[in-house]
Design goal:
binds molybdenum atom, alpha+beta, 11 strands, Sulfite Oxidase, Chain A, domain 2, binds ligand MTE, 5-stranded mixed sheet, about 210 residues, single chain, 4 helices
Length: about 210
């Protein structure tokens, strides 16, 4: 992969090594709405690797493959023909900003899972994006009912900077798990650490336990 901002990546990798931003106390009971070490923002920051792929819906394809019995190739029309839902959730970014009440529209990941029919050994999911970004999570976490493949936010099509035309929304984990510009969902028997996970970020990323790094 190439084209991403090497300097920015190295800086964040160094922060992970130094344990920077580890400031709060774990709150596994969610006694507060704001996870430890986070601050609430009113705007919506944009985070990427220094490239924002342009993917017209006419050229959009989603591959669902790996350890599944029914691999899928969905074009935009097929994706939009799936049952549509709305879900409101909070964003918690590892760089310490949180944003409440994000109203997402899209298709539940459970719906995509039902289409692809993972094999019994499929315990992990790896998300692949058009900018070369990857991130990994367990199938159980990917399947939570608040996880969406979203095409809209507040009723408006997702902008390019926020991952349009379609991105994952995985609200229970730090937002680096929510891959923008998604092109492939790979099911796997074995775990494969993603872009930030191999650069010092935590493999799980629970904001309530402050699993930023490790
Ligand atoms: N494809 C891709 N997805 C990505 C990223 C990225 O660099 N590339 N950054 C992640 C990180 S670290 C965060 S916090 C969120 C940011 O989403 P936003 O820009 O819509 O706020 O996207 C995540 N998904
Ligand atoms: Mo992030």
């Amino acid at each position: 992969m190439s084209g991403f901002n090497e300097k920015l990546t190295r800086t964040k990798q160094a922060w992970a090594r130094a344990g920077r931003l580890l400031t709060g106390k774990p709150d596994p009971d969610h006694a507060m709405r704001l996870p430890p070490g986070q601050r609430l923002v009113g705007n919506w920051p944009v985070l990427d690797l220094g490239v924002q792929p342009h993917v017209p819906v006419a050229d959009w394809w989603l591959t669902i493959d790996g350890a599944v019995s029914c691999p899928q190739e969905l074009d935009w029309a097929a994706f939009m023909a799936l049952p549509q839902v709305e879900d409101v959730s909070d964003i918690h970014c590892v760089t310490q900003w949180s944003r409440y009440d994000n109203r997402w529209q899209g298709v539940r990941t459970s719906n995509l899972i039902a289409l692809a029919k993972p094999l019994p050994e499929a315990a992990h999911v790896i998300l692949h994006a058009h900018d070369g970004y990857t991130t990994n999570l367990t199938l159980a976490h990917f399947a939570e009912e608040d996880c969406l493949l979203a095409h809209s936010h507040d009723g408006e099509p997702l902008t390019r900077e926020h991952g349009g035309p379609a991105r994952l929304v995985i609200p229970r984990w730090y937002f680096w798990k929510s891959a923008k510009w998604i092109k492939r969902i790979e099911f796997s028997a074995v775990d494969k650490r993603g872009f930030w996970e191999v650069r010092g970020y935590h493999n799980v990323g629970d904001p309530w336990l402050e699993q930023r790094y490790g």
